[in-house]
Amino acid sequence: MKTRHITILYFAALREQAGKEQETRSTAAQTPAELYAELQAAYAFDLPQERLRAAVNHAFCDWQTALNDGDTVAFIPPVSGG
């Protein structure tokens, strides 16, 4: 299994739950879906994947997009206006 070094950006509730704005993580996750499941277990994120958007290298993407070493991944929760 290939290990990738991924930079992860956290926003809103995920940033609060992770306790950081970003991190670089070594992972065997091959897709944003697998990566989010790994992070959800590590940080007890309470937002289900279905409520988030995934972005790889600053572009929204499908949850099954292949991840590559050096990618930047962001999980973007719903935004509430006011």
From TrEMBL:
UniProt GO BP: Mo-molybdopterin cofactor biosynthetic process
Superkingdom classification of source: Bacteria
Keyword Endoplasmic reticulum part of the UniProt annotation: no
GO molecular function, one term: nucleotide binding
GO cellular component, one term: molybdopterin adenylyltransferase complex
Alphabetized UniProt keyword annotations: Nucleotide-binding
Keyword Nucleotide-binding: yes
Protein family: Belongs to the MoaD family.
PANTHER family: MOLYBDOPTERIN SYNTHASE SULFUR CARRIER SUBUNIT
Protein name: Molybdopterin synthase sulfur carrier subunit
Organism the protein comes from: Kingella denitrificans ATCC 33394
